[in-house]
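Severity: low
Component: inverse-folding endpoint
Summary: output formatting inconsistent between runs
Steps to reproduce: submit the following structure tokens with default settings.
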């Protein structure tokens, strides 16, 4: 059984970076599942573009091999796999060479009436040149869309430059800045929990909530992306987009209606209300870390310097932040954000920690009364868990214990629902930008992040080492501990 499927209109998807890791590991499996579930019309085509010299058949075999690696064998249906691979085409192209675009024009000939999607799974500095060359080759139709992978630039100025270059070719409603976290079921369910249930919204404020924690933990290292990652770091790679977008969805005001501009307007208000972190404040509100040798699940793993083949590096692979939203709803409530590589496990969670009760009526022997927590697990095993105080069953008086009300997606719905990339790719084809970032959101996020980067340079300290397989440097514990709080690693 699967979720309800609504087919999209015929389309042509051109993937720049068609032989890259993102394409083979995420995009092609997502498209295969949408084809398997009957959502992709027969007339649709997928065209990979990169500098590698392949013909169509060689590219199909490469993608077929990737699907066998990244999709469980029971989900691979031979007839569907053959049908999907028959949709694949390939065009070798150096995107900076203005002479080679005629072949792509020929490959797309006759498809002007189909929706045309250009997915830029490339380095951000190529976004502008690719769009410029698409326009010069007369490949941008009125129904065209362009998808930009994060990060959009490496600071505010470069983000503005990229947005200007892309915006010179595509209108804002044709530009889809993708953050796959916004396509996750539990992230979207956060809006349903808040705005479709009266139970939570009256308590969703500083009067009832003590603090919020957002954790995005990865057990992997840089995985062959050392050249890119060492110029980027965790703050740019994860905090500027994933963590801040999750914070926005937790903190935003109810929009008038669930549509693209209303939701993004409210997220922009949150970003604009973030209290700046600059100067010497970075010592108390931010932590930079870098993983060293350690072990994950008992398996030894190398340190970051070994992974990138370098003697030294100032790049952070872990970052923790104390963010504050200066408005009436959230005044005085900290948002603790952290993300890192080579952590004990792969997990992403949002923890809403409610305040403790003002007075306990129970005798000491009943046990401690713990504050309620709402835990939204984004990956893996998506779920929503509310931790409540209950009576421990049995005779012998009142004994209290914490018990969870647990909504597990896998156990509750008994369906396979599309993953984030599956949903977002189909939203691009539909022209629905609700779950994508608008230009002003991206630039507002950089406006908050950039002073942190500047303060790190001005008040230089090397990243603090933490062993692979741990939850980051001890100073991350001190960041939240100074406020009398702890990270909820037992929930992660």
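Observed output (run 2 of 3):
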């Amino acid at each position: 059984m699967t979720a309800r499927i609504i087919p999209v209109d015929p389309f042509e998807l051109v993937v720049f970076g068609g032989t890259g890791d993102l394409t083979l590991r995420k995009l092609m499996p997502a498209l295969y599942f949408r084809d398997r579930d009957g959502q992709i019309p027969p007339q649709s085509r997928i065209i990979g573009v990169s500098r590698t010299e392949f013909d169509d058949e060689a590219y199909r075999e490469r993608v077929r091999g990737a699907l066998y690696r990244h999709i469980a064998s029971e989900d691979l249906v031979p007839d569907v796999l053959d049908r999907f691979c028959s949709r694949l085409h390939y065009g070798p192209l150096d995107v900076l060479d203005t002479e080679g675009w005629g072949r792509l024009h020929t490959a797309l000939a006759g498809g002007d009436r189909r929706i045309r999607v250009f997915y830029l799974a490339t380095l951000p500095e190529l976004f502008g040149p690719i769009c410029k060359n698409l326009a010069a080759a007369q490949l941008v139709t009125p129904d065209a869309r362009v998808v930009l992978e994060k990060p959009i630039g490496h600071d505010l100025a470069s983000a503005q430059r990229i947005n200007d270059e892309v915006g010179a070719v595509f209108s804002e409603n044709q530009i889809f800045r993708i953050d796959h976290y916004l396509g996750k079921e539990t992230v979207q369910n956060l809006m349903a929990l808040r705005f479709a249930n009266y139970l939570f919204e009256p308590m969703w404020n500083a009067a009832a909530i003590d603090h919020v924690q957002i954790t995005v933990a990865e057990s992997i290292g840089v995985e062959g992306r050392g050249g890119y990652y060492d110029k980027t770091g965790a703050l740019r790679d994860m905090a500027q987009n994933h963590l801040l977008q999750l914070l926005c969805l937790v903190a935003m005001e109810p929009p008038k209606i669930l549509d693209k501009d209303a939701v993004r307007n409210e997220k922009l208000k949150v970003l604009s209300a973030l209290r700046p972190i600059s100067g010497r404040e970075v010592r108390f509100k931010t932590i930079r870390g870098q993983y060293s040798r350690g072990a994950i699940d008992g398996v030894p793993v190398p340190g970051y310097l070994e992974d990138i083949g370098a003697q030294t590096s100032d790049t952070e692979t872990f970052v923790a932040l104390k963010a504050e939203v200066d408005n009436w709803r959230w005044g005085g409530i900290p948002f603790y954000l952290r993300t890192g590589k080579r952590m004990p496990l792969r997990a992403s969670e949002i923890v809403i920690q409610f305040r403790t009760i003002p007075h306990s009526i129970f005798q000491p022997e009943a046990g401690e009364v713990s504050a309620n927590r709402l835990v939204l697990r984004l990956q893996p095993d998506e779920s929503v868990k509310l931790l409540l105080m209950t009576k421990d069953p049995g005779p012998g008086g009142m004994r209290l214990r914490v018990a969870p009300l647990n909504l597990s997606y896998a156990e509750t719905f008994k369906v396979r629902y599309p993953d984030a990339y599956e949903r977002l790719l189909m939203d691009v084809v539909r022209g629905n930008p609700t779950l994508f970032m608008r230009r002003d959101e991206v630039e507002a996020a950089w406006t908050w992040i950039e002073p942190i980067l500047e303060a790190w340079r001005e008040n230089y300290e090397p990243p603090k080492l933490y062993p692979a397989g741990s939850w980051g440097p001890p100073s991350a514990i001190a960041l939240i501990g100074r406020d009398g709080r702890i990270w909820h690693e037992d929930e992660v």
